[in-house]
Specification:
Length: 203
């Protein structure tokens, strides 16, 4: 048995990518997304001069804390990710037009993905991890961009940066530095090691 019966694990995120990463690792968990005003938190963080990595940790912590207060016996995983390019922070595009604008802005440039995970138990933070993969988009043509937008369709608005590396988004890039799981939104290897250290998983 890889996983002990207790504590129960809860992922405080609605992200399909994060769910898939944990499920593929054969981790048993429940999903309970946390309702957080992310825009307000980011605005405050920027006003206070915090980095995107700081803001990602704060958001991940708030998500885990929100769900942990309702499930004190569960180990709750909060996560967040912020894309940064030349000092600008990017959110998920609202629609296909904004996705195209984001991709045109990122084309030929390198951006980072400030990716954070935090775990709470009994209402308190007991672990956190932050990493910043770097990705460089190639100088793709307008014809490719139009084809990519058509292929991805509604998936464009589901991820920051308007790309999914596990899908057609891989064609956008010339260089990728960092763990694949962290790029998808959850640093799985450090998280699994934490679970082993806590006795949640068999060491």
């Amino acid at each position: 048995m890889l996983q002990q019966a207790t504590p129960r694990l809860i992922l405080a995120s609605a992200s399909a990518s994060r769910r898939a990463l944990l499920a593929n690792a054969r981790v048993r968990f429940d999903v309970e997304p946390a309702a957080i005003d992310e825009a307000a938190v980011k605005q405050t963080a920027r006003a206070e001069g915090l980095t995107a990595a700081d803001a990602a940790i704060i958001l991940a912590d708030l998500k885990a804390a929100r769900i942990s207060t309702r499930n004190p016996d569960a180990l709750v995983i909060g996560a967040d990710q912020i894309l940064v390019c030349d000092g600008a922070w990017f959110d998920k595009p609202a629609d296909a037009a904004e996705a195209e604008t984001h991709l045109r802005t990122l084309r030929g440039r390198t951006h980072t993905l400030a990716t954070a995970a935090v775990c709470h138990l009994d209402g308190r933070s007991i672990w956190q991890h932050e990493t910043q993969p770097r990705l460089t988009m190639r100088e793709f043509s307008d014809a490719f961009l139009a084809a990519y937008l058509a292929v991805e369709g509604g998936a464009l608005t589901t991820t920051v940066g308007a790309y999914r590396l596990e899908g057609a988004g891989i064609h956008l890039f010339s260089r990728i530095e960092g763990a694949h799981d962290a790029i998808l939104g959850l640093p799985v290897l450090p998280l699994l090691q934490f679970f082993r250290d806590r006795g949640v998983l068999t060491a």
